[in-house]
Amino acid sequence: MTPHAVISGAGIAGPALAHQLTARGWRTTVIERFPQRREEGQNVDIRGAAREVVRRIGLEDEIRAANTTEVGTRFVRADGSAAASFPVTAGRDGPTAEFEILRGELSRIFIENTRADTDYRFDSRIADVTDHGDHVVVALEDGTTLDADLLVIAEGLHSRSRRFVETVDVVDLGMYLAYATIPRTDADNGWWNWQHATGHRSVHLRPDNLGTTRAILTFMSDVRGLEDLDRAGQLTILRRTFDDVGGAAPRVLAALDDGAPMYFSTVGQVHTSSWNKGRIALLGDAAFCNATFGGAGTSLALIGAYILAGELAGSSDIGAALSRYQDLMKPFVGTAPKVRGGMLRFMNPGTRNGIRVFHAGAGLAAGPVGRALSALTSMANIGGDGAQLPDYPPSPLAEEIAAFADPDAPTV
């Protein structure tokens, strides 16, 4: 009988896992609480060993073709002049990765490459789970149930379903982010333009490959729970917070007032002691989110999906496969940048003098000496060059499919 996996979350980790499991002979069902694929969101990075993953799974060219076109990162003053610039360098990732893609575009690529073989159920979420030992029953809020060999929770930082494996508190780092998609103007360029403002505030403008501009408003706050406000409440907070900021801020606020798509979120971390319980597993941010900033989340999700699928396909013992998945993934998670609240405050200075000092330091780092030093410690090089990735053979079903597609291939 064909094994069946139910996957909760249709962002990146979930469809990536579905892609690998279906290629290895599994049947997959992906449930997602949003009513359709989410197109909003900003740039995500594919770094380190995750580059080797996308090459092995055959999607490297498609992902490269959807690159955001960002040419590098530039710290700018309120008048738009550059204080320091860090261009993309082939073979070495800085703040802008060589593999830079919109979150929605990467999700689209995986979903389009799995839709024929995967049952996607949007506007659906888990109500309860019963693990019977030899199978798991997933009850959905609409009253239907799914019988499966495995449930994988590939949700975000604030996953509600993580409780079926482990109950943990999210570590809130005190930063809020408002992501917006705004109209592109003739003045926009190919740089990630990062404008600092006093009070640990920042305004970001980034190019995309879809004819629009991606904006981010970030600020530090001791107040918790702002992400739970409705859009009107969040816009009120943003207007009050950025009302005195010049540069690109008025443009972003005006676009939001005009109804520009927005996603409001927090920067946080989650540390779980176990990523599996019985026939239930955690993947991606639900298991090992190190913070929105840091360039690691997407890469770890892709690596995790590749390893989890490989271990499941190579074993008849799901429990043993889940244990090996955790053992193999921990070293990769250990290579992620250690993001702390103090680091976020340092990267977003609170005073005018602090901003001047930061710009001066960034200017030195962007010079020849700084470039030489940064070459030794490439940013967020998750898992290195992929040499430590397990090499999984294709499943018998995958070989049969390949033989059917290639009439000259030897009979299996």
Total beta strands = 18
| Low-confidence blocks of residues | 372-379, 400-412
Looking at the overall shape, the CATH architecture of the domain at 4-45 and 57-67 and 103-169 and 270-337 and 383-405 is 3-Layer(bba) Sandwich
Q: Quote the average pLDDT.
A: 87
Helix share bin: 25-40%
- Determine the CATH superfamily of the domain at 4-45 and 57-67 and 103-169 and 270-337 and 383-405: FAD/NAD(P)-binding domain
| Strand residues, percent | 15-25%
CATH domain topology of the domain at 4-45 and 57-67 and 103-169 and 270-337 and 383-405: FAD/NAD(P)-binding domain
* Biggest β-sheet description: 7 strands, mixed
Given this structure, which CATH class of the domain at 4-45 and 57-67 and 103-169 and 270-337 and 383-405 is correct?
Alpha Beta
The structure class reads: alpha/beta
Number of helices: 13
**Gyration radius, rounded:** 22 Å
What is the end-to-end distance?
Answer: 19 Å
Instruction: Categorize the overall geometry.
Output: globular
Strand order of the largest sheet: 5-4-13-14-15-12-16
Write the layout of secondary structure elements.
Layout: E1 4-8, H1 13-23, E2 27-32, E3 43-45, H2 49-56, H3 60-65, E4 72-76, E5 82-87, E6 100-102, H4 103-112, E7 118-122, E8 126-131, E9 136-140, E10 145-148, E11 150-153, E12 171-183, E13 191-197, E14 201-207, E15 212-220, H5 231-242, H6 249-257, E16 262-269, E17 276-277, E18 280-282, H7 285-288, H8 297-313, H9 318-333, H10 341-347, H11 352-365, H12 368-376, H13 396-405
Parallel strand pairs: 1-2, 1-11, 2-7, 4-13, 11-18
Antiparallel strand pairs: 3-6, 4-5, 8-9, 9-10, 12-15, 12-16, 13-14, 14-15, 17-18
Helix pairs in contact: 1-8, 2-8, 5-6, 8-9
